[in-house]
Write a structure and sequence with these properties.
The protein is built from ten helices and ten strands. By secondary structure, it is α/β, with parallel strands linked by helices. It has a six-stranded mixed beta sheet with strand order 1-2-3-5-7-10, sandwiched between helices. The chain has a four-stranded mixed beta sheet with strand order 4-6-8-9. β1 (about 5-10) and β2 (about 15-20) form a beta hairpin. Bound molecules: coenzyme A.
Length: about 260
C-alpha cells in the first residue's frame, strides 16, 4: 500500500518502518507524504491503539531530510517545505494515541526531529543523534530548534545545533533525549513491551495525559486549564467508572476506550 513505508499491525500496535535503507531512510517527498497518510490512519483506525516509528536496517533510523531535494528551492519554497513538515510532525506530537520512536541508528537532522516529535524515544546502542544542518548552511526546519531545546535544555541544544556534533545513545540517555538504550536486537521488543503496558490503560485518560503534557509547550494554551478540562472529561467516561469499580472490587480493570 505504501511505497516508502512498511507497516505491520499486531496486538493494536502499528509498526511503521521507513524503508529507504540505501539512502539511510532519508525523508524525501514521498516518505513525508506517506508519513502524513499513515499518521492519519493512526488517528482514524480504531484497531490501532499505539504506533512505533523506526527505520529499515540496522544502521540508520533516518539520516535527515533528503538533501538532494533541497537543490534549486527558493526562499518561499523552502518556507513551504518547512511548514508542511512541521504540520506532519505536529500531527504526530498531538496524536491522542502514543507514538514512540524506536531509534535504530542515525537520527540526524529531520530524523532527529521526527524522533523528537514522537511521545518518547527508545534507542539501540548504536543510535546517534544530531542536527548537522549548519554543515550545509542550513538550520533545522521541522521543529528541531524548538523540540531539542524543550527536551534537553537550551545550553545543550544550542551547542548541538551550532556545532553539528553528534551524540551517542548513552549521552542521549544522560541528556533525557531517550528513555532507554537497549541492544539493537531488543529494540522493537522493548518498545512493544512499553506500548503493551500503555495499551492496558484507559485510552481516553492516556490521551488526556498526552494533551496536557503537550500544553506545557503550547503558548496558545494554559496547561493547568487543559489539565482541569481533561480531568473533568474523565468523569464522564465509562472507563473511569470501570477503573474505580475494578480498584474497589480488587480486580483488573477492563477498559474499552469509552
Ligand atoms: N539525504 C540524502 N541522501 C542521504 C542522506 C540524506 N540526508 N544521508 C545519507 N544519504 C545517502 C548518501 O548520499 C549515500 O547515497 P549513495 O550511496 O547513493 O551515495 C547513502 O545514503 C549512504 O550514505 P553514506 O554517506 O555513504 O554513509 P556513511 O556511513 O559514509 O555516512 C552519515 C553516514 C549519516 C554520516 C552520512 O550519510 C551523512 O552525513 N548524511 C547526511 C546527514 C545530514 O546532514 N542530515 C541532515 C540533512 S538536513
Amino acid at each position: 500500500m505504501y511505497q516508502t513505508l512498511l507497516t505491520n499491525l499486531e496486538n493494536g500496535i502499528l509498526t511503521i518502518i521507513i524503508n529507504r535503507p540505501d539512502k539511510l531512510n532519508a525523508l524525501n517527498k514521498s516518505v513525508m507524504e506517506e508519513l502524513n497518510e499513515v499518521v492519519d490512519e493512526i488517528y482514524k483506525n480504531s484497531l490501532i491503539k499505539a504506533a512505533i516509528i523506526t527505520g529499515a536496517g540496522t544502521k540508520s533510523f533516518v539520516a535527515g531530510a533528503d538533501i538532494s531535494e533541497f537543490l534549486g528551492l527558493n526562499h518561499e519554497e523552502a518556507m513551504m517545505l518547512s511548514e508542511k513538515g512541521q504540520i506532519i510532525f505536529f500531527k504526530i506530537e498531538d496524536c491522542p494515541k502514543p507514538i514512540v520512536a524506536a531509534v535504530n541508528g542515525f537520527a540526524l537532522g529531520g530524523g532527529c526531529e521526527l524522533a523528537m516529535s514522537c511521545h518518547f524515544r527508545v534507542a539501540s546502542e548504536n543510535a546517534k543523534f544530531g542536527q548537522p544542518e549548519v554543515n550545509l548552511g542550513l538550520i533545522p526546519g521541522y521543529g528541531g530548534t524548538q523540540r531539542l531545546t524543550q527536551l534537553i535544555g537550551k545550553g545543550r541544544a544550542i551547542e548541538l545545533l551550532i556545532t553539528a556534533n553528534m551524540i551517542d545513545a548513552n549521552t542521549a540517555l544522560q541528556y533525557g533525549l531517550v528513555n532507554y538504550v537497549v541492544p539493537q536486537e531488543e529494540l522493537l521488543n522493548k518498545t512493544k513491551t512499553i506500548l503493551t503496558l500503555i495499551n492496558s490503560k484507559a485510552p481516553l485518560a492516556v490521551a488526556g495525559c498526552i494533551q496536557s503534557a503537550n500544553a506545557v509547550f503550547d503558548e496558545s494554551m494554559n496547561g493547568y486549564e487543559t489539565e482541569v478540562k481533561e480531568f473533568g472529561k474523565c468523569f464522564s467516561t465509562k472507563d473511569m467508572k470501570e477503573g474505580i469499580a475494578a480498584f474497589i472490587e480488587k480486580r483488573k480493570a477492563n477498559f474499552t476506550g469509552n
